[in-house]
From TrEMBL, chains A, B, C, D:
InterPro entries linked to this entry: Gfo/Idh/MocA-like_OxRdtase_N, Gfo/Idh/MocA_oxidoreduct, GFO_IDH_MocA-like_dom, NAD(P)-bd_dom_sf
Record-annotated GFO/IDH/MocA-like oxidoreductase domain positions: 152-289
Annotated protein name in UniProt: Gfo/Idh/MocA family protein
Top-level taxonomy: Bacteria, Pseudomonadati, Pseudomonadota, Alphaproteobacteria, Hyphomicrobiales
Domain Gfo/Idh/MocA-like oxidoreductase N-terminal per the UniProt entry, residue ranges: 14-142
């Protein structure tokens, strides 16, 4: 039962700006807590809303210096780049279609970017963005937050070390129920932009949560996806984007082993599921199961032996899980802590970039722009496959 | 906390014979316990093995009259049909390929049939059998035993009554792990015939357990399947039949509602899964979830309300569940009781047939030869789809 | 996934009679199913009710020979003892106060006894009965049925083998909710006799379910109880016997280890608990947890290692569990199978007694009249302690 | 699925100091994260260790102004009280025996106190402290952090509103396993002071975790404890304080209802339990069950209806739970968020005190010095009872 204050640093926190996340938004507040939790970041500037009044009111509520509350991300990138105390990194927490232009503006202004997923609303933009990250050399962190959960880190390590043998089957699912009815017609802000192709891109449930499930499957299995066969539906009358997606997965073969197969289900119309993200990975030597709603547990079965319940910071936890753990086993950590772990990794990367010749932390692990490209490619391949009546489609 | 001895009858038990189920078999013993549990059947004859020595030894062990231990099902059908005290029904518990000829022999001899699943090893045989059942007017019960679980009965009733609204999504899965390695090469009898196309038919995991998952999905949802897109693998080197099947499902539309979609996963190579049969059904008004390993529970979520844990014989249990329940809530019933419920329904049907002009019980519910046809059609459609690289294939 | 027909015998079944268990009773039907499940017993005689009309109707329903449906247990004991085909054993399933006179009558008539718990309604009677069993040499099986669950057998073995080290703490509980309101005033038969001191004895919840929890704690831990401190209540106005009992336990020391301690909670007024029997045992080297509602699982934690989920017939199951198991892992067994295991052990004992010089099965394990004495002693000690404001009271 | 940034304020954060919590400590880091999570506090001063070198090093690590890193709490209280920018509140996170003198020093210096539990190491000190809080009028918050969990708040509200009817039975337990062996002899700091009567007071497991369980039982049930009967042990050889406590509880009657009863188990030697705090409350109309390891769930059974699984921010969550919730349902919150909720309530109280004539928030709910007195009284009553062989002892 060792405690840990590992993330607390004597050095000054990183100056952070935010695009989006004003009043009425959900994910902005999550980013702010995640940034603050380990004392690694301090929020000093924002372009918090495309609506000027809301932007201003939000800035006041957050205690920002009024001078540093901007009317647009473009203005903010420009102004902050000039200040000696300007932001070192920006968090982009807008609807998907704004990710690309905003990220572009900050990268070109020499500012690191922490960006919500999916990385962009089109694959073409995602690729352009990846090229820009490469060119500028800036840190780019994509908040596929579920990869921040300690037991997910451990699961990834177990697979990488061969504890499951050759992976054969990967089952990923992310069911929700909040869009079972036409919530978007009630003016609910979260629902409205998510079902609008202009703001979300080609995928509905696929883009919003399918990308999380897919990212997690890749992150833990260490496999690359070859192709998909998808059957997608918009069950709620009048909805333009999918609210349920059933997808078959074929991974690329690794070594001599037969290529792994899988299924992915993303749904926003499955009553009784709040955020039912679940991942199961099975190999020749064992199996793993993990559920987001109960993230401190990882079920592990070495084939032919009893099932083990590994717990965060518990008897079977490894160093890699411990590195992103704050409290002893049996004291649950949750969504915010997992999210904060992504911010913590971002901080490490940004601090490494601060130092001349600073070597990046060997254990530093966070979703990158390349993961973002993969995610958007996944969405577009699914949509393409679905239009071709489920034809197998390469990513 | 009232108990129930509802199945105990003053009338004499039904005389039963058995084909297969000799020493070393698994499912034969299950059928015998199921037949005996409610005192509805008495086992009086058998052709317990194709190996004469094993047949004889098995009959002795079971206390059968040596005269009524036969060397073949053909001989048994003939001899028993002639006896005034001959069997009224036969249980067929052999490998799949024997189902058809054996069932044919008994139906033609005027004997009711209780048959293990899948009903036959080819669709052509299944259809012939269905015609024969029709022609002879005999009772034919297919032991899709999972439909016997009380909470599954209740789930079916809830869907039928509209408590879920229009069904949109059906997720069915049946993972196991016992064939993760090449158990069939060790002489293990259960494994050997299941991976042999000559004895099993076109499906491996698909036929053995996929048919169960599919049958349950149909039984509960009340939907008919339109077509499938399947990706199947034999992961264990040298295995000829699938040990993992990932299948997309399209159901037929019902009324004006958009057609329901689903996925079905059957696997025998998923370490950590013993008999992980699970069914989830989601509609416009609510969702249901049920797991075979914990069959006394049924999760029900009316959309927008808290999740409810319905329990067998508990506060939320309905009459339809109570009808196939023996002990009070909180005292778990299991696999054998569920199996016995199929035998109990069979007994009702056979007793009704005994009576002149006897009306069949309105509530009588058991899987029929037609369900068997559907099951084999499902397997063959999946195999066909898989051979065409997942092309959508009608049943 | 090996099957098992281990309990099926070529030899003829044991002839069984029953006292109590007529229409409206609960536990009688359970005993009959348990006796029948493995084909070890055949019910041939009964004194099924103290109400002659009900006794007769019940006998007809069960298909008993009318000659062998008796008006009283005394008559039955006498008549059956004289018949060449008379019963070899009797199941006594009446309210508690009838256990003693009925058991006495049959033992003295040379008939083995299978008796429901608590063994008698007073400690004095229990001791007399124990002496009589000793004197007659007959088999006496007390149906503390929960000791029949396979994982409970395994738990007991694990403790005996030292896998938990020295036992320090034992926590047993058996909460129910069915007597939360005054059900006994509605004419419900099960409730009525249980709350009546004349029929039940000194304990209400204590006698009905507390004895089960206590018996299980002893059975698994292998410890003997030294003394109790109890606080008991009848929460429902007008009720004469306890419906909630909170008890502290002190076990006798074993070897040099400090004596183990524990708590026991029995309640019939705890809404949300159907049959919440639960046992937890903790020692210097590990811990075990088991819950009756999910009996196929046994949680085992070797200290300092991850928690393991042992499953009936699964990877970590031992031979001792396998011996009382009928179906493969992942196919749940329940209450009736556990109950049948007691009958199976009884059959082994009775068959051994049949044989001249027959050696009893070394592994034969069932609750005896001595366990019954312990149970009634526990109830009386608790009631005595409660009357003395919780003074520690020896058994 | 709306998000919430409810705790973020435009006003400046509260200036906080800390006593204890230097390197090697566990709970100090937890307090710092909890204070920071909602941006309500800023840590500006500390007396972080009684070891000067460790105090200095810890202050550097936390980025404190060296001038405000003090060698003792006395010095700190004096110095900070004089500064115009001095701390407004102090968090005391030392071993128990330091709580009283430190709290006294700060209260007398006019500084609000946030103090870990148990409030003091003796009941006499606790009473003195309560008087001092009364006299000074300062805010005093005791971090019984489990009362901060949203579903615990909801449980309390449900009981208060009568949804359970009259409470009859309260079962509280807090098992752990980390002291199963003599960890204190290895130099482990957390273990060492907890088993030392000079630093901990009269209770071992009782004081460390039993007080939490007791506090939670009172908080949710709304009942006051009348007396206890305790049986306590130090199972690990050489240990001076209890590592296992079995306690019977008698609550004071409320209105005409029969007084409620309960049991409390606190253990640090129960292998397989990490932080198994669990509370169950049963009344005439329903029951509630909650487990700390899975804090986002609250089981609720209205008597005679199906069990409901209430979830934080889910369909059945009430406003009172929503008030201390940050993320949507299905995204788990954990220990740190619950702890932060106590800090959030403290902030509200301190801000109210800032304002002239400021009315305290009606919904403001946090454990007070009076709860602390109750907790120490509970520990001392248990120890007293145990010494008198379990005699019922008034608090």
């Amino acid at each position: 039962m060792v405690g840990a204050s590992k993330a607390e640093k004597g050095g000054g926190p990183i100056r952070l700006g935010m695009v989006g996340g004003g009043q009425g938004a959900f994910i902005g507040a999550v980013h702010r807590i995640a940034a603050r939790l380990d004392n690694e970041f301090v929020l000093v500037a924002g372009a918090l809303s495309s609506d000027p009044a809301r932007a201003k009111a939000s800035a006041v509520e957050l205690g920002l210096d009024p001078e540093r509350s901007y009317g647009s991300f473009a203005e903010m990138a420009k102004a902050e780049a000039k200040r000696p105390d300007g932001i070192e990194a920006v968090a982009i927490v807008t609807p998907n279609n704004v990710h690309f232009p905003a990220a572009k503006a900050f990268l070109e202004a020499g500012i690191h970017v922490i960006c919500d997923k999916p990385v962009t609303s089109t694959l073409a933009d995602a690729k352009k963005l990846a090229a820009l990250v490469e060119k500028t050399g800036k840190v780019f962190v994509l908040t596929h937050n579920y990869t921040g959960y300690p037991m997910i880190r451990q699961a990834r390590e177990m697979v990488a070390k061969g504890q499951l043998g050759d992976v054969r089957v990967v089952q990923a699912e992310y069911p929700q129920d909040w869009l079972t009815e036409a919530l978007e017609t009630t003016g609910q802000k979260q629902a409205s932009w998510r079902v609008d192709p202009k703001q979300s891109g080609a995928g509905g449930a696929l883009g919003d949560i399918g990308t999380h499930a897919y990212n997690l499957a890749r992150f833990v299995s260490g496999l690359e996806l070859d192709s998909v066969s998808a059957d997608i539906d918009a069950f709620v009358p009048g909805r333009l984007l999918d609210d349920n997606a059933n997808v078959l997965l074929r991974f690329k073969a690794k070594g001599k082993a037969r290529a792994a197969k899988g299924m992915l289900w993303a749904s926003q119309v499955a009553p009784g599921n709040e955020n039912g993200l679940k991942l199961r990975v099975y190999g020749t030597k064992g199996g793993l199961e993990w559920t987001q709603a109960d993230p401190n547990y990882l079920w592990y079965t070495p084939f032919g032996q009893p099932k083990q319940l590994l717990t965060r910071a518990g008897a079977g936890a490894t160093a890699i899980a411990g590195r992103v753990t704050r409290v002893p086993s049996g004291h649950p950590e949750g969504y915010l802590e997992g999210f904060a772990n992504i911010y913590q990794e971002a901080a490490r990367a940004i601090r490494a970039a601060r130092r001349k010749g600073g070597k990046p932390d060997r254990d530093m692990v966070f979703p990158t722009v390349q993961d973002g490209v993969e995610g958007v490619a996944f969405v577009e391949a699914c949509v393409k496959s679905a239009k071709k009546n489920g034809a197998w489609t390469k990513l």
